[in-house]
Amino acid sequence: MSNDLQPAMKIPALVVKDSDNKQADITVRQTDLSWKMIVIYRGKHCPLCTKQLNALAKMKGQFIDAGVELAAVSGDSHEQLTEHLKDLEVNFPLYSSLSLVQMTDLGLYISEPRNENETDHPFAEPAIFIVNEQDQIQIVDKSNAPFSRPDLNDLLSGIKFIRENDYPIRGTLTE
């Protein structure tokens, strides 16, 4: 079994920078919603990330109705996040400064920029962690490329099914 985070494990604290450049633990709930969805995105340089974050913002009410709080983070600097906010219509917290150590601890796929026009630092490829009321990883989706992401409507439907049917955490069988 891999040493990275697995389904049913507790999500570790992830201290990053909020949009005001203050330290914040992204895993701490900001609302009374019992579940949390943490989106790891590649950064300002990624148009697919901008598209995904804006689409998620349009669905925020549906996720709230399902009991899920939203947050997103990248390895971008605070300055890059501030610049990216100009292209975003998000209505949920965005964070920056996810470190290489944190990316590795989360078991994320990490890429080097293709050139200086893309970005100036290694970055995590897309991932989503759905954390339940016990702070366990209920659902995890990690990709090694920007083109492979779960459909947000399908993900929302799955979360609702899990919550309404007391569906167990899947993928926990070990040898």
TrEMBL record:
<dbReference type="Pfam" id="PF00578">
    <property type="entry name" value="AhpC-TSA"/>
</dbReference>
<feature type="domain" description="Thioredoxin">
    <location>
        <begin position="5"/>
        <end position="164"/>
    </location>
</feature>
<protein>
    <recommendedName>
        <fullName>Thioredoxin domain-containing protein</fullName>
    </recommendedName>
</protein>
<dbReference type="InterPro" id="IPR013766">
    <property type="entry name" value="Thioredoxin_domain"/>
</dbReference>
<dbReference type="InterPro" id="IPR036249">
    <property type="entry name" value="Thioredoxin-like_sf"/>
</dbReference>
<dbReference type="InterPro" id="IPR000866">
    <property type="entry name" value="AhpC/TSA"/>
</dbReference>
